[in-house]
Amino acid sequence: WWLNEPxxxxxxxxxATKQDAVxxxxxxxxxxxxxxxxxLSNSTGKYVLLTFWSSGNADxxxxxxxxxxxxxxxxASKDKFEMIGFSLDTNAKEWKKTVKSLGIEAAGWLQAxxxxxEASPSVRLFxxxxxxxxxxxxxxxxxxxxxxxxxxxVARVKQILSGDLYYxxxxxxx
Length: 174
Known about the structure:
It is a single chain. It is built from six helices and seven strands, in the order αβββαβαβαββαα. It has helices at 6-25, 58-74, 92-102, 121-125, 150-161, 166-169; strands at 30-33, 36-39, 47-53, 81-87, 109-113, 133-137, 143-145. The protein is α/β, with parallel strands linked by helices. The strands form two sheets. It has a five-stranded mixed beta sheet, with helices on both faces. Strands 1-2 form a two-stranded antiparallel ribbon. Helix 2 links the parallel strand 3 and strand 4.
């Protein structure tokens, strides 16, 4: 019956159209780090975990500690998975200090920041309202999760890297 409800049908169509448009935009984000420019489109064919975080945010610090372990655990899958950290910081000195103190700068885990904070085009593109926020992107460049956090995020990434593509099998919630 709900497919015949015009208002609901319009909302579903608008949501689906927005999801498709956002998925296509994921391929266009560019990050700069130490003079290196990286586009997510260069990662097509790999799963990418894009994390928005902030130096002064305690939740970000805790989440980055979990991601550091995920990074270590996923090195055997580096040909099909990479991580990108995008900081919402506005102070370059503070950002560099945090990256160094947390030990999160490593091959296959790019740390980037444009020092524009919440005004960053990347932050606006992904509609980041709080840090940390994770975007899990599939090898085709489509977002498969915008809501996973903490242990659940780590478990899902490990599940995908083991070959269990749960997100392709899930039934829509009724």
